[in-house]
Write a structure and sequence with these properties.
Elements: E1 6-9, H1 13-22, E2 30-33, H2 62-81, H3 91-96
Parallel strand pairs: 1-2
Amino acid sequence: MGPYDVTVVGAGVAGSAIARELARHPHLRGAPAEAQDDVGQGTAKADTAILHTGFDARPGTLEARLVREGSRLPAACAAGSGIPVEPVGALPERLVSRP
């Protein structure tokens, strides 16, 4: 193994997502670096596993647009990886979506 083009420091949620994206680029050699024995053992381990849908973002703002777009990505990623996701919704989201 030779030198790497990219080293991803940390294998939590963000680091793992970055490493996954880098793996799609065959011309780059990347290596994840994690201090723990396994991925997701730091602050990512304490995550609530709730996907934020942007129900509280002000409509029309950049935040609202980015959160809505981003909220669709985990389900697509999970489906492609065979990871089950159960979209149960949340009360605030249900209240905001009512006419």
